[in-house]
């Protein structure tokens, strides 16, 4: 049965690259969410060829042809016609009674759709079961992750765990009781451990996909892109773990400060009692109120309490130093992530420029071939 998804291309934009190209914004409306996927015409062309190779049949609607003597960047009418043609092309596949194109990996990968839940007539394991097995216990399955689409599903599941961990940390910061804070921290820790396990599984699966030479294997550029996704995911997980440790350290500091304030209040009460009883004999314990003693101070004299307070202040200073190191580490991680993103953006710009240059050379070659023939 066809997935309940609505597809449209409501608008187009021009990229900020040099030279610019047209970007078609594909809007997909699923039952629970909506999102937009930006694509250029070359992406549609590559997808069309992959779709035919996987299904051995042309789609129900033709792909709008490429123009040689005009471009969509400078011709608004041509850009609108191609937008409408690409929208009709996708809608024809989505609304066709024949679901072979919608069930192909190329369709799901092109639109970033979640894997469809389908079963064979013999009752074999469906894709959702394979995803669950690959995430929960990949060592128990004889076939580790070798499907690029299954790899993307695992990656989305890992990102959802990181998102849950971030929500739990935000909730922990808003809680007022220690019990609720502990529960939020435990849930965040559980999600981070889960995400770390999936990251390891994804790393192994990416090695398997890279070593595979099957028809469904992906190119070297996509392998590098997915490696970058894993690197960023690891950095995000490490940053959330550092934040969790920092929150735990801050809680210990708050409890220690509250304890010191209670002791200072205890000593102030004793000093006030000494002033009020001028002319009378001071008590043997220098005004310490027995009812406000703790297990740690009950057996100590005044010098012992003072020494204990100094030790607690020294411990607090050490905790502050540890917290400062964690904050500095988070700042360094943020700086490194920003530098990595700048490098990746420059690489993408260079790759786009090289692609346009190569495209121009191919166009010139085709024209020359046409003149010769």
From TrEMBL:
<comment type="function">
    <text>Essential for proper morphogenesis of the vacuole. May exist as structural reinforcement on the surface of the vacuolar membrane and be required for maintenance against rupture by osmotic pressure.</text>
</comment>
<feature type="region of interest" description="Disordered">
    <location>
        <begin position="171"/>
        <end position="190"/>
    </location>
</feature>
<feature type="compositionally biased region" description="Low complexity">
    <location>
        <begin position="274"/>
        <end position="288"/>
    </location>
</feature>
<dbReference type="InterPro" id="IPR036871">
    <property type="entry name" value="PX_dom_sf"/>
</dbReference>
<dbReference type="GO" id="GO:0000329">
    <property type="term" value="C:fungal-type vacuole membrane"/>
</dbReference>
<feature type="domain" description="PX">
    <location>
        <begin position="1"/>
        <end position="117"/>
    </location>
</feature>
<dbReference type="GO" id="GO:0016192">
    <property type="term" value="P:vesicle-mediated transport"/>
</dbReference>
<feature type="region of interest" description="Disordered">
    <location>
        <begin position="270"/>
        <end position="296"/>
    </location>
</feature>
<feature type="compositionally biased region" description="Basic and acidic residues">
    <location>
        <begin position="171"/>
        <end position="183"/>
    </location>
</feature>
<dbReference type="InterPro" id="IPR001683">
    <property type="entry name" value="PX_dom"/>
</dbReference>
<dbReference type="GO" id="GO:0097576">
    <property type="term" value="P:vacuole fusion"/>
</dbReference>
<protein>
    <submittedName>
        <fullName>Uncharacterized protein</fullName>
    </submittedName>
</protein>
<dbReference type="Pfam" id="PF00787">
    <property type="entry name" value="PX"/>
</dbReference>
<dbReference type="InterPro" id="IPR000727">
    <property type="entry name" value="T_SNARE_dom"/>
</dbReference>
<feature type="domain" description="T-SNARE coiled-coil homology">
    <location>
        <begin position="310"/>
        <end position="372"/>
    </location>
</feature>
<keyword id="KW-0175">Coiled coil</keyword>
<dbReference type="GO" id="GO:0035091">
    <property type="term" value="F:phosphatidylinositol binding"/>
</dbReference>
<keyword id="KW-0926">Vacuole</keyword>
<dbReference type="GO" id="GO:0007034">
    <property type="term" value="P:vacuolar transport"/>
</dbReference>
């Amino acid at each position: 049965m066809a997935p309940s998804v609505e597809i449209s291309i409501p608008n187009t934009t021009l990229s900020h690259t040099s030279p610019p190209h047209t970007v078609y914004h594909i809007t997909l409306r699923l039952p629970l969410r909506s999102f937009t996927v930006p694509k250029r015409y070359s992406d549609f062309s590559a997808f069309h060829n992959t779709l035919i190779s996987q299904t051995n049949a042309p789609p129900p609607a033709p792909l709008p042809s490429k123009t040689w003597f005009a471009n969509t960047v400078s011709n608004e009418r041509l850009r609108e016609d191609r937008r409408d043609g690409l929208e009709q092309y996708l809608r024809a596949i989505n609304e066709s009674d024949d679901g072979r194109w919608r069930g192909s990996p190329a369709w799901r990968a092109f639109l970033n759709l979640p894997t469809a839940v389908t079963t064979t007539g013999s009752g074999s394991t469906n894709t959702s079961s394979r995803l669950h097995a690959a995430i929960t216990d990949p060592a128990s399955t004889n076939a580790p992750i070798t499907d690029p689409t299954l790899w993307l599903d695992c990656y989305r599941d890992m990102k959802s765990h990181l998102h849950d961990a971030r929500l739990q940390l935000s909730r922990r910061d808003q809680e007022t009781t220690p019990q609720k804070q502990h529960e939020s921290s435990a849930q965040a820790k559980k999600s981070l451990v889960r995400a770390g396990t999936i990251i390891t599984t994804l790393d192994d699966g990416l090695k398997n996909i890279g070593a595979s030479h099957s028809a469904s294997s992906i190119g070297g550029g996509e392998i590098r892109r997915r490696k970058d996704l894993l690197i960023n995911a690891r950095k995000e997980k490490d940053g959330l773990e550092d934040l969790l440790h920092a929150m735990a350290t801050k809680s210990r500091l708050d409890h220690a400060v509250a304890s010191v304030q209670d002791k200072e209040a205890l000593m102030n009460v004793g000093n006030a009692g000494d002033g009020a009883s001028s002319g009378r004999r001071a008590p043997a314990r220098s005004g310490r109120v027995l009812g406000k003693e703790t297990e740690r101070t009950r057996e100590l004299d005044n010098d012992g309490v003072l020494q204990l307070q100094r030790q607690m202040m020294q411990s607090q200073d050490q905790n502050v130093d540890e917290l400062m190191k964690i904050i500095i580490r988070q700042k360094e991680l943020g700086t490194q992530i920003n530098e990595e993103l700048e490098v990746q953006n420059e690489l993408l710009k260079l790759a786009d420029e090289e692609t346009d240059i190569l495209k121009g050379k191919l166009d010139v070659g085709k024209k020359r071939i046409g003149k010769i023939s």
